[in-house]
Amino acid sequence: MDILLFGGSFDPVHNGHYSILETALEYKEFDKIIIMPVGTPGHKAGCKVPFAIRKLMAETAFSKLGVDMEVSSFEGESTERSYSYITVDYLKSLYPGASIYFVIGADSAVNMKTWKKWEYLAQNVTFLVFARDYDDRSLINRAVEEIKVYSPKTTVLKSRVVPVSSTQLRDMIAAEEDFSRWVDGDVAKIIKANHLYAADYYERNLGTARLLVPLMLREKRAQHAFNVEKLAARLAEKYGVDVKKARLAALLHDIMKQADESIMLHRAMQSDIIKRIKGKPVPVLHGFAAADYACREMQIDDSETLMAIKSHTCGRPGMSDLEKVIYLADMLSEERSYPEKENLLKLAWTDLDIAMEQALTDSINWLKEKNGVIDSDSYAALEYFTRLNHGGNTNG
Ligand SMILES: [Fe+2]
Ligand SMILES: [Fe+2]
Questions:
Q1: How far does residue 285's CA lie from ligand 1's centre (Å)?
Q2: How many angstroms does the Cα of residue 394 sit away from the middle of ligand 2?
Q3: Which residues lie near ion ligand 1 (Cβ < 5 Å)?
Q4: Pick from 140, 138, 134: nearest CA to 160
Q5: Which CATH number fits domain 217-390: 3.40.50.2000, 3.30.750.24, 1.10.3210.10, 3.20.20.100?
Q6: Top-level CATH class of 2-162?
Q7: Angle in degrees, CA 225, 327, 352, rounded to 5
Q8: How many A from CA of 257 to the centre of ligand 2?
Q9: Ligand 1 mean position to 170 CA, how many Å?
Q10: What is the pLDDT of residues 188-239, one digit of tens each?
Q11: Degrees, nearest 5: CA angle 285-57-66
């Protein structure tokens, strides 16, 4: 079995990537093509768009090759830093006995010795090195000769020159220039419809978040996120809270709710207030994990938005109005139904602090009925709002 492995950021995928795959397919027939978008574990600002969306764009573009193609989540959802030799080991365990042909650029071949365990990697793959007309051939040939000691069938292929890079494309999109001839038509539609890579912070992040919700959450949970967004925006308007911040926090508040538990816990641990999450019950951690996701995968750095995402599960003393709006919109979203809802909804439209006191009382009571674990922040928050509403010193 011959497998072609093609990794990259694909941020966004463009015709240059497509042309590399076409050239590889002209060179040889493969039984399977595996596209491997990189992840951003532990690193801020690696990619501009979350993995789930880069995967969607790659699937959209490469499905048109008409071959057995799979976009893998192995690196994109890994909690560790990815190395090519680990990815290749993983593929070898999935497809024992397969020959793996690994697409790399000429610059990677030249810098191969900086790759972790490169000799071991080279022993396990055949590299297809893509060189452009203007690359320094003697430099590449020298590097390839050294690689061939471990990977004798390594071959240099000439790539058709598509004069665009993902970085240039992102700049063109942000500048609202026409970029459509550089990317697949359906990928261009995804980018335009969802304002991916737009220059404006809210246009870009709200669009990205709206595309992300149904990719990361199953139907009912996704509908919940959209309902929370609707109510949070109305409450924000009433109370003079920034409506765009409220929409963004609402859309992202449950984004990690249905992730694999190990990924959710890893993200919660990476959250910037690591000391606070120690000892917290697992169900409340998805808020912390979601804030980490917003920060690392989307480069959202507004502390108020991140705090509203974090505190939506258990509240905290001294919550901002934005946090109260998200907490209440989450409890009162359209699809929910419970006996205390009508009263709480009335309070939410009358006074945020009174509503928070009632909301925390209700949630603590439900958890007690279900024998659930109640987080100490919820008790502290209830105490805070009770004092605030009925007099006394809120700091004490
Ligand atoms: Fe939640
Ligand atoms: Fe929620």
A1: 9
A2: 28
A3: 254
A4: 134
A5: 1.10.3210.10
A6: alpha beta
A7: 130
A8: 8
A9: 33
A10: 999 999 999 999 999 999 999 999 999 999 999 999 999 999 999 999 999 9
A11: 130
